[in-house]
């Protein structure tokens, strides 16, 4: 998968980045770059973002409630979609995702 980038300025969630569940290995790396003041959490869903109207979102175990700093992490297990949620602040959180496999 080619590099995917989404941003969120102010409180709310970014657009969803769907993952390729057929990629082997599934491995996904991500990084969040912060501009300004924000508290954010990277989230994932196991629901298909194309067919589920209201997916259930889970917080990443280590990149959650991060305040005003850049952070990175990964997913070694399959997830259907990833996004960044800004819970406070007026700055911007930019999420970049790269998945192993198909380029």
Give a brief outline of the structure:
The chain has 103 residues and is an all-beta fold. The chain is 0% helix and 51% strand.
Shape: globular
* Helix content estimate: under 10%
What is the CA–CA distance across the termini? 5 Å
What oligomeric state is this?
single chain
CATH topology: Jelly Rolls
Radius of gyration: 13 Å
What is the H/E string? EEEEEEEEEE
CATH architecture: Sandwich
Number of E strands: 10
The number of helical segments is: 0
Share of β-strand residues: over 45%
List the topology elements.
Elements: E1 4-9, E2 12-13, E3 17-18, E4 28-35, E5 38-45, E6 57-59, E7 66-67, E8 71-75, E9 81-89, E10 92-99
Antiparallel strand pairs: 1-10, 2-9, 3-9, 4-8, 4-10, 5-6, 5-7, 5-9
What does this protein structure show overall?
The protein is mainly beta and 103 residues long. It has one domain (4-99): Jelly Rolls (Sandwich), CATH 2.60.120.380. Helix content is 0%, strand content 51%. It contains no helices and 10 strands. The chain has strands at residues 4-9, 12-13, 17-18, 28-35, 38-45, 57-59, 66-67, 71-75, 81-89, 92-99. The strands form 2 sheets. Strands 2, 3, 5, 6, 7 and 9 form a 6-stranded antiparallel sheet that branches. The protein has a 4-stranded antiparallel sheet with strand order 1-10-4-8, with no helix packed on it. 26% of the residues are buried.
